[in-house]
Amino acid sequence: MQMLNSTVGRKILMSISGQGMVLFAIVHMMGNSSIFVGPNGINAYAQHLHDLGPLVWVFRLVMLAFLLVHLTFGIMLTLENNAANPTGYAVNKKIKATFSSETMIWTGLTLLAFIIYHILHFTARVTPGVVKGVDALGRYDVFTMVTSAFHNAGTALIYVVAMAALFLHLSHGIQSFFQTLGWNNDKTQPGITMAGKALSFVLLAGYVLIPVSILAGILTK
C-alpha cells in the first residue's frame, strides 16, 4: 500500500505493467506474422491458441490487470503533474522533453480506444462486416476474416494510425522504464533510448505490414 501512496511507487508499477504489455505486443506481432505463411499458417496459430483453453483466459486476465494498472496510474500521474503546474511555464525549459514524452497521455488514450475496437473486431467479432467461417480443416478461417477486413481502406487506416500511436508511446515508454527503475545512467542512456526506438519501429513495421500488404494486394487468398 505504501507503494501506491507515493509518486515513485506509482511510476514503478506503471512502468512494470507497461513493459508487460510490450512483451505481449512482441509475442502478438510474431503470432500475427504467421499470416504471411498463408491461410494454414495463421489458422493453425489461432487453433493452437484456442486449444490452450483456460490458459488463454488466464493470460487475458493478466493483460487486463496490466492495462488497468498502467491506465489508472498513468492518468493519476498526469493529473498530479498538471495540478503541480496549473498555469504552465512562460518558457518551456524541459530540455529532455520530446514529442513522444509530451503526448504520452494522448497516444495512450488512442491505444486504449484501439484495444477496445480491436477486441470487438477480431476477438468478439461483433463489428459490422466481419467475415466469419471455417476452413477446409474445420478451423476458424482467421485468414479470410483478416484479409477481407483490411481490403477496406478505412479499417486498414485505423490500424495504421493506432500503430503510429504505439510507436510514439513506446519510443518514450521503453527508455522511461529503465529510467524509473534506476537502471540507466548518462553513459548508457543514449544506447537505451536508441534501442527503445528501434524496438518501437520494429513493432510499427511488423504490425503495419499486414494491413498495407493486404490493401496493396500483395497478401491475398
Task: Give the structure's gist in a few sentences.
It is found in: Membrane. The chain has eight helices and no strands.
List keywords for this structure.
3 helical TM bundles of succinate and fumarate reductases, SuccDH_FuR_B_TM-su, 8 helices, 0% strand, mainly alpha, 221 residues, heme
Description of the structure:
By secondary structure, this protein is an all-alpha fold. The protein has one domain (1-83, 98-216): Up-down Bundle (3 helical TM bundles of succinate and fumarate reductases), CATH 1.20.1300.10. It contains 8 helices and no strands. It has helices spanning 7-32, 39-51, 54-84, 99-102, 104-123, 142-150, 153-180, 189-215. The chain starts with 6 loop residues before the first helix and ends in a 6-residue tail after the last helix. The model is unreliable at 89-95 (pLDDT under 50).
Mean pLDDT: 91
Helix content: over 70%
Tell me the number of helical segments per DSSP (H or I, 4 or more residues long).
Answer: 8
> Can you tell me the number of structural domains?
1
Overall structural class, as computed from helix and strand content, comes to mainly alpha
**End-to-end C-alpha gap:** 53 Å
Provide the CATH architecture.
Up-down Bundle
Q: Which blocks of ≥5 consecutive residues have pLDDT under 50? A: 89-95
- Principal-axis shape: elongated
The quaternary state of the protein chains shown equals single chain
CATH superfamily annotation? Fumarate reductase/succinate dehydrogenase, transmembrane subunit
CATH class: Mainly Alpha
Number of strands: 0
State the order of secondary-structure elements, H for helix, E for strand: HHHHHHHH
Rg is 20 Å
CATH topology: 3 helical TM bundles of succinate and fumarate reductases
Beta-strand percentage range: under 5%
Sheet with the most strands? none
